[in-house]
Amino acid sequence: MRLALLTDIHGNREAFDACHAEARRLGAENFVYLGDLVGYGADPAYVVDRVAEDFATGGFGVMGNHDLGVVAPGARRIYDEARRALDYAGELLDPAQKNFLAALPLTATRADASGREILFVHAEASAPGRFLYVQTAEDATRSMDATAASVTFCGHLHRPRLYHRSGAAPAIAFTPTSTPTPLARSRRWLATLGSVGQPRDGDPRAAFALYDLDRALLTFHRVDYDVEAAARKIVQAGLSEFFAERLFAGR
């Protein structure tokens, strides 16, 4: 079973479609969404509908802080321009789409072929509802200490990163490449996946990953998409031009 792991789509239809098509081409059999379907981008309703279609055929996912910001506007403080993007999403989403977001859990778990537990969470495991970032090895260690899962997949950071640890030792970080990485069963792992719709690692290409449950093999992917179209629609929607401009630089 190959899982496509997509996170932080942020209403970017063009990036989503490119990643989804490429994942299918590479043999993805199911889709996992790690939160923030909405926010920043111009097509929140489209993204929610496409994700719901994948849920109907066995896909699953978790809630991100921007998803929460649409269905519970006062739950978290957020800066003005991002709040406007969430208000925009709230205006476009119908009740069924909002109910879909509201029903997303903060965490989900599955087992791989060997029975190892895998945790899926938007931010990290120690306090999923606080949406803390995993930016350092210390942050990764904190998250790993909070769960019995052997592998944790996170979003939220918008930058791909991979951590591993042996026993109770602190986590060790490295930047993944496009080369498939075997997640050795003798270690524990945490991966922050790059963003589909708002990359922030200096690479403007959309990011997603594939995880082979049978072989415990993780591969990070980047995909070209129509950045100009996505950026143009952000401006046309009356959202911050900064959200459009940053797409070209991946920042």
The chain-level mean pLDDT equals 95
Radius of gyration in whole Å, from Cα? 17 Å
* Main β sheet profile: 6 strands, mixed
Share in helix? 25-40%
Total DSSP helices: 8
Content of β-strand: 15-25%
* Strand ordering within the main sheet: 3-2-1-11-12-9
Low-confidence runs (pLDDT<50, min 5 residues)?
A: none
Give helix and strand order, one letter per element, not per position: EHEHEHHHEEHEEEEEEEHH
The tally of strands reads: 12
Give the CA-CA distance, first to last residue. Answer: 33 Å
Describe the structure.
The protein has 251 residues and is α/β, with parallel strands linked by helices. The protein is built from eight helices and twelve strands. It has helices spanning 13-25, 44-56, 65-71, 80-92, 95-102, 137-145, 227-236, 241-249, and strands spanning 2-6, 30-33, 60-61, 107-111, 117-121, 151-158, 161-165, 172-174, 181-182, 188-194, 206-212, 217-223. Strands 3-2-1-11-12-9 form a six-stranded mixed β-sheet. A six-stranded mixed β-sheet has the order 4-5-6-10-7-8, covered by helices on one side. Strand 4 (107-111) and strand 5 (117-121) form a beta hairpin. The longest helix is centred in the first third of the chain and has 13 residues, at 13-25. The two termini are 33 Å apart. The relative contact order is 0.18.
